[in-house]
Each structure stands twice: as structure tokens, then as C-alpha cells.
Amino acid sequence: MAKAKFTCEHCGRGFSMAAHLARHLSGGHGIAPAGGKKSGLKRGPKKGSWGGKRRGRQPAAIAKLGLGSMSADELAQVIVAARGEVQRRIVSLQEAIG
Ligand SMILES: [Zn+2]
Predict the structure, then answer these.
(1) Which of 61, 74, 84, 88 could form a disulfide with 70 if both were Cys (CB 3.0 to 4.6 A apart)?
(2) Max Cα-Cα span within the chain
């Protein structure tokens, strides 16, 4: 058994089998065998993304205000009214501030 196909690059010892060298590296030098890295290389499918589909989830406000059951016309009226209300509040805030 003079063949030493695998040589330890740290101490020069020869091994006939890769497994022996790996064992020597981990046991004798404290080096983890290559290929066993667990450094986040494997990434599974992203959790939390909906795969591009945006259906099935309403913003909380829509559910809360019942906007989901309104027609587009009604929604438009709500938007106009809400915008006016926001304007009015901004004005009153500005007046309060001075
Ligand atoms: Zn060695």
C-alpha cells in the first residue's frame, strides 16, 4: 500500500482513499471536509411571497370599510368624499398650528 493518491496538504501524509484523508483532515487538523458547508447556499422557495398572485388578500381597510362589496361608482364617490375629508382636516390642522 505505497500508493498515496491523496496527500494532506497540511502535513504531507499520504492516503489511499479520499475518505481517509477527509477523516485525517477533520480529526488531525480540525478541518471540516469540503462540500459539507452549511452557509445558506441552499435556498428553498421564498415564504411569504404569493408567487406573484395578488389575489385573495384585501388590505385591512377595504375589509373594514366594506369597500370590497361596493361598485366602482360607489368607490369613486367614497374616494372623492374621502379626499375632500382629508383636505378639510389638513386645513383645520393648518389653522390649529397657525
Ligand atoms: Zn495532515
Answers:
(1) 74
(2) 95
Burial class of residue 25 in the structure, from the number of CB atoms within 10 Å of its CB (0-12 exposed, 13-18 middle, 19+ buried): buried
d(CA 10, CA 32): 13
Q: CA-CA distances (angstroms) from residue 45 to 83, 89, 93? A: 41, 45, 47
Indicate yes or no: pTM above 0.70.
no
Domain coordinates of the chain in residue numbers? 1-35, 60-97
C-alpha of residue 9 to centroid of ligand 1, in Å: 7
- Between the CA of 3 and the centroid of ligand 1 the distance, in Å, is 16
Instruction: Report the topology of domain 1-35.
Output: Double Stranded RNA Binding Domain (3.30.160)
- Between the CA of 1 and the centroid of ligand 1 the distance, in Å, is 18
pLDDT tens digits, residue range 59-95? 888 888 888 888 999 999 999 999 999 999 999 999 9
Distance 39 CA to ligand 1 centre (A): 25
